[in-house]
Here is the input.
Amino acid sequence: MESHREREPVNAFTCELEDWFHILDTDRAPAMEDWSRLPLCAEKNVDRLLQLLEDNEARATFFCLGWMAERMPGLVRRCQEAGHEIGSHGYGHLLSYTVGSDVFLQDAIRSKKILEDITGQEVIGFRSPGFAVKNNNRWVFDVVAEAGYRYDASVFPAQHGHGGLCEADPAPHVIKTKGGSLIEIPSSTIKLWGRSVCLFGGGYLRISPLPLIRWGIRRLHREGRPLVVYVHPREFDPSHPRLPLKWRRRFKCYVNLRSTWPKLKWLCEHYRFTTMKTLAADLEPARQASPADTKGLEGPRQRVTVVDVTKRSPVSRQVHSN
Ligand SMILES: [Zn+2]
Here is the structure.
């Protein structure tokens, strides 16, 4: 199996370090001022995940909420000491388009500082809660760059409840922003019956049968793209407390929780996983060579030579103006 895994492209495993009540866009979720009174479940689940990753010599990126990191700095350090990357998921799990760019920027800066104080290392990666980047709030990219991050992982290149940039390049690429250029590593999607779909994270991973997931990964790899998996600690803990959600959200959030752990185990046993930072490293020269978008939204599109992260050979790819 090892030789098979060594031939595969390198993939990224990501976990959003948040808890069972961090569910967006519902009035049934508690307000931030009430979070401190609630029991926290993430720590024991992340420890289980750390063991699974270690057993399979896999590395991952933990996009941590600053609020969680303040309460469990030891867990953040354990992730770091096990060789995983610490990225930021913001401080207070804010939905970008409901709070606006100023508040979102302060939240992204606050989280970065907390995580850097805990780890003693620069935090270069950011993932927006809910993958909440749409065509009408692409300012998120400006904010992420302005907050000092070098790569972003907020793009979901398919229909999605809180975000979804269907026309986005589904492969890792560079985006020009007003705050400088940013590497973008989208979540993995493939085309199925003409539509972009995700089979590799959150509820999509939970409802997709394993043969379909395996087929999707083959497709991704044939196209020279890495697999980017994402998961939340609550998703592999079927005993976690539930919010009194309406039926549609209840289904989305809680369907097939028992299937998550066996699927994560299967993924780790069959594919090589590394950090998002490792994938981003191949695009760092292109990011540095791409100046900030000073011409605003109508900036020209440029072609530059960047390195494909899976084939590790130079390819020509567009740098997108924001
Ligand atoms: Zn989240």
Observations:
- Residues 16, 18, 22, 89, 93, 129 surround zinc ion (CB under 6 Å).
- Residues 2-26+33-321 form a domain with the TIM Barrel fold (CATH 3.20.20.370).
